[in-house]
Amino acid sequence: MAIRTACAAWEGNLQQGRGTMSLAQGGLEAPYSFAARFEDGSGSNPEEMIGAAHAGCFSMALAHELGQAGHAPVRVATSAKVHLEKSADGFVIPKIELETDADVPGVDEETFQRIAQAAKQGCPVSKLLSAAEITLNARLLRAQQA
Question: Domain 46-140 class?
Fold first, then answer.
């Protein structure tokens, strides 16, 4: 199977330092900092990268599950809200909220919701992040009776 690589470098101390996260295949390089992670500073942070990975993986899993069920999607768009909270043991990610909009001709709402939940369970990133509560709000944009 494939092995994927991402890299990060950090310079300086935690609060005044800065870093860069990048994907080995190119295409993405993002600066990150304490302010971007724990305040409202500019740049990215590890939680956004986790969210992007989860949203991308879920979108592909949903497209696959829909296709396998005979309902080829026109478009699946997903966002992930990754919650970072301070606990007694340090910082934790207790919850991830997935929100997806899917344009899927010929599928009814009940079938779509069942398939979306199955995609959430089968998504490899969802499995990896299962220590967090993962919620899903799946919206069918074009429901046509089969």
Answer: alpha beta
User: Once rounded to an integer, what is the mean pLDDT over residues 73-98?
Assistant: 96
> In the block, which residue shows the tokens 């990133």?
125
Quick check: helix, strand or coil at residue 57? helix
Residue that has been written with the tokens 């870093």 in this structure? 19
pLDDT at 145: 46
CA-nearest of 94, 91, 73 to 138 is 73
How many angstroms separate the CA atoms of 71 and 78, rounded? 18
Convert the pLDDT of each residue in 6-26 to its tens digit: 999 999 999 999 999 998 877
Domains of the chain, by residue range, sit at 6-38, 46-140
